[in-house]
Design a protein that fits this description.
By secondary structure, the protein is of the alpha+beta class. It has a domain of 96 residues: Mannose-Binding Protein A, Chain A. It has five helices and eight strands, in the order αααβββααβββββ. The chain has a three-stranded antiparallel β-sheet. A three-stranded antiparallel β-sheet has the order 4-5-6. The longest helix is centred in the first third of the chain and has 25 residues. The termini are far apart. 14% of the residues are buried.
Length: 220
């Protein structure tokens, strides 16, 4: 120890301090110049070096999470609270009455959806035909009267189906909604029910007058 002290001089001490300072400054400078901005990648980061505490709150967004990277065990999810408002039930005011529509139950909805014939008409041949024959009129007058009511003259088949289902007067002809040009004369078909259950078809000039019925499609 005495020998070491004997060899220490002021110049030796100063030289040693200068060397230490030079090396320290050089290391700092090297660290600054050798690690420029954006130079540290995944290879330079040690496994598990980045902890949760080092990640800023809200820094990881949905776009940074790979599909399937996060999974949720359904068993860990509790029961969903009862919905107070049914957001997807257009006509339900609350989730409690989401089984009804405008106050109607499923059986009532089914009943309301069935098509029906208007009052004073009866179904026959896919049409709702008026029960009572209307007063005699020409073919075009009858057609016009039905059209104004939003209805039409039934066809021969529909009139026959009607008379089969609801037997009535067999003494008079009534217009069927079928007219045609016979030479230079417009004629229309007329139908009457026979007493034996059959039907008699004839033609008459459209200017003739016959009783008639109007028909309309069923609706709900």
């Amino acid at each position: 120890m005495h020998r070491i002290r004997g060899n220490l001089t002021y110049s030796n001490v100063v030289s040693t301090l200068c060397l230490v300072l030079l090396l320290a400054g050089g290391t700092a400078y090297a660290a600054k110049t050798m690690l420029p901005k954006n130079s540290v990648g995944t290879k330079q980061i040690k496994n598990n070096a980045v902890s949760g505490a080092k990640i800023k709150n809200g820094a990881v967004t949905a776009s940074k999470i790979a599909p399937g990277a996060i999974s949720i065990d359904p068993a860990s999810v509790g029961t969903v609270p009862s919905a107070k408002q049914a957001s997807n039930a257009d006509h339900a005011t609350t989730a409690d009455n989401a089984t009804t529509l405008q106050g109607l139950t499923p059986p009532q909805i089914a009943a309301a959806s069935k098509v029906r014939c208007p009052a004073e008409t009866l179904p026959a041949g896919g049409l709702c035909i008026e029960e009572a024959e209307l007063a005699s009129a020409t073919f075009f007058e009858a057609s016009t009267q039905c059209a104004k009511a939003g209805r039409t003259l039934p066809t021969v088949a529909q009139i026959e189906t009607f008379d089969e289902r609801y037997p009535g007067d067999t003494s008079t002809f009534e217009w069927a909604g079928q007219a045609f040009l016979n030479g230079s004369t417009f004629e229309a078909i007329e139908v009457t029910r026979l007493s034996n259950g059959g039907f008699n078809l004839a033609v008459a000039a459209v200017s003739a007058t016959r009783e008639f019925r109007c028909g309309v499609e069923a609706s709900n």
